[in-house]
């Protein structure tokens, strides 16, 4: 366990400032992510250093097509997420923290690894970057930040793959050490964000703009889910939003396959991916990449 670096006390309650849920956490209770606990007057991160996944990937798998292309990246993750996406491809680890006990999270799930060991693994594997991915790196901010600082000193690049729901305070902490990020833009209808991900759209839009303005390499991904975000109006809104920031921002449009709570939903038809590509071209986007098809 480690004390959270972003919270405020409010009587017996702790106000978490790590992400845009800004959870108001009662004594001995956890936030929405299931990992940050009000522990007798301190907000603690239960699973600091408990790595659930560590492997080498092509950087293009993040996906990042315009950052260190052709290179390998050391990918790491811890359990947990501040979203609950109905189509999550990694629900076995992203949602685990919401059901697991305190002891399981702190002592049993994952393998205890120190930030310095992650750096050693990246260097020995000839990976020029470390990717904080698979789940949501915002939720393991403290471990990610400690690792990112060491990575910079070792000459390594830091990459986040994120839902974009981090707080401005979190972005302030990571931005000096963050080289590239892929943010999921899951749609352009606030009601759908709430229904399918238990979140709001506007903080994600604000963070995409903020990241770009901080000159961090940015790519955006939209998983096109039938019946959720596959209509022309919504795809046009997404493409136009990205283009208004910069037509140089790469847009990854990915095919959905049945997963988690949407096992009965058909995969995205290829024609819908083609439509999204045409919409992106019409919006003036210069880098459009279809994935999973």
Automatic annotation (TrEMBL):
InterPro entries hit by this protein: Aldolase_TIM, AmmeMemoSam_rS, Organic_radical-activating, Pyrv-formate_lyase-activ_prd, rSAM, rSAM_sf
- The highest taxon in the source lineage is Bacteria
EC number(s) on file? 1.97.1.4
Its needed co-factors are: [4Fe-4S] cluster
Record-linked Pfam families: Radical_SAM (PF04055)
Q: How is the cofactor bound?
A: Binds 1 [4Fe-4S] cluster. The cluster is coordinated with 3 cysteines and an exchangeable S-adenosyl-L-methionine.
Q: Which CDD domains match?
A: Radical_SAM
Q: Which UniProt keywords apply?
A: 4Fe-4S, Iron, Iron-sulfur, Lyase, Metal-binding, Oxidoreductase, Pyruvate, S-adenosyl-L-methionine
Question: Has UniProt tagged this entry with the keyword 4Fe-4S?
Answer: yes
- The name on file for this protein is Radical SAM protein, pyruvate formate lyase activating enzyme
Q: What is the lineage of its organism?
A: Bacteria, Candidatus Berkelbacteria
């Amino acid at each position: 366990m480690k004390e959270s670096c972003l919270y405020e006390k409010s009587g017996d309650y702790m106000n978490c400032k790590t992400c845009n849920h800004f959870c108001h956490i009662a004594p001995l209770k956890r936030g929405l992510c299931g990992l940050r606990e009000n522990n007798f007057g301190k907000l603690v991160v239960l699973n600091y250093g408990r790595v659930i996944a560590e492997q080498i990937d092509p950087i293009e798998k993040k996906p990042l097509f315009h950052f260190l292309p052709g290179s390998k990246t050391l990918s790491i993750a811890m359990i947990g997420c501040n979203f609950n996406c109905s189509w999550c491809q990694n629900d076995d680890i992203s949602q685990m923290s919401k059901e697991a006990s305190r002891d399981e999270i702190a002592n049993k799930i994952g393998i205890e690894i120190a930030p310095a060991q992650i750096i050693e693994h990246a260097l020995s594997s000839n990976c020029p970057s470390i990717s904080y991915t698979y789940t949501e790196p915002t939720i393991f901010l403290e471990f990610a930040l400690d690792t990112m600082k060491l990575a910079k000193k070792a000459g390594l690049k830091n990459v986040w793959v994120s839902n974009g729901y981090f707080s401005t305070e979190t972005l302030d902490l990571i931005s000096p050490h963050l080289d590239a990020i892929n943010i999921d833009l899951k749609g352009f209808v606030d009601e759908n964000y709430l229904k399918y991900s238990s979140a709001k759209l506007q903080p994600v839009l604000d963070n995409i703009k903020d990241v770009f303005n901080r000159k961090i390499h940015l790519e955006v991904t939209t998983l096109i889910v039938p019946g959720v975000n596959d209509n022309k109006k919504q795809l046009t809104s997404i493409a136009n939003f990205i283009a208004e920031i910069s037509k140089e921002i790469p847009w990854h449009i990915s095919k959905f396959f049945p997963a988690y709570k949407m096992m009965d939903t058909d995969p995205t038809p290829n024609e819908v991916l083609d439509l999204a590509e045409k919409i992106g071209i019409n919006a003036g986007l210069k880098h459009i990449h279809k994935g999973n098809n």
